[in-house]
């Protein structure tokens, strides 16, 4: 990755010094500083930074006005808000003004470094994810299926076509958040889900809701394990799973994902078929300070 040039915008000399020391210690090239809108316009025009760290409150202006001025000069410059203030309204306005990230003061050096690196990695990082996500999710499925059910599933050939399908009866959807967003779907018949549930519980399930709960938790475990493996390969991904959403009934369609990359397969098991589909998309993922 090329050396990242950074400009610091803040009306506090103390804050500028803290952020400058963090950035220099982490190997970034600090090419300028500014304490006002006029200085920001001047330094961004001359220094041509890749990233600008931006305070929200400054005399006579604010971070969002400065951000708009920066993007009028060069729309490719990434702006990260570094402010003592953070609430839903400010975050909403920041997103609307094409801010690339948001950190709350006091700044943690690791958080700032990780956020800048994620923002700058872009296509190179996405290509890395594209090349490994399917094998990792499949491995997590196989390992956990074997660990919990003492059975190794056999997978059919993978398919990269993104088409609309009709559910077998129960679909569990796991959202994935982080540098890139995505989702994983497990789909199976009621009969297959009930047999899996019975084997896991070592008894008959009491009701359908118990079957759904078991399948939701199993899907959560698989997706969570897969995300952990991917994060260990490269911490910039920062992937995490959202709580499962479960759909069931007759004639339910599994809609096209509208993702940049998607891969599916069918796992043949002694309990029946389990359809797995995993996909991710480019673009801005999670960018808040809790990275």
TrEMBL record:
Boundaries of every Response regulatory domain copy: 5-120
Organism the protein comes from: Clostridium bovifaecis
Pfam families xref list: CheX (PF13690), Response_reg (PF00072)
The protein's role, per its UniProt record: May play the central regulatory role in sporulation. It may be an element of the effector pathway responsible for the activation of sporulation genes in response to nutritional stress. Spo0A may act in concert with spo0H (a sigma factor) to control the expression of some genes that are critical to the sporulation process.
PROSITE patterns: RESPONSE_REGULATORY
Xref: SMART domains: REC
Record keywords: Chemotaxis, Phosphoprotein
Gene3D superfamilies attached to this UniProt entry: 3.40.50.2300, CheC-like
Residue numbers of 4-aspartylphosphate PTMs: 55
Top-level taxon: Bacteria
InterPro entries: CheC-like_sf, CheX-like_dom, CheY-like_superfamily, Sig_transdc_resp-reg_receiver, ST_Response_Regulator
GO BP term, example: phosphorelay signal transduction system
PANTHER family, sorted: TWO-COMPONENT RESPONSE REGULATOR, TWO-COMPONENT RESPONSE REGULATOR ARR22
Entry protein name: Stage 0 sporulation protein A homolog
CDD domains given in the database record: CheX (cd17906)
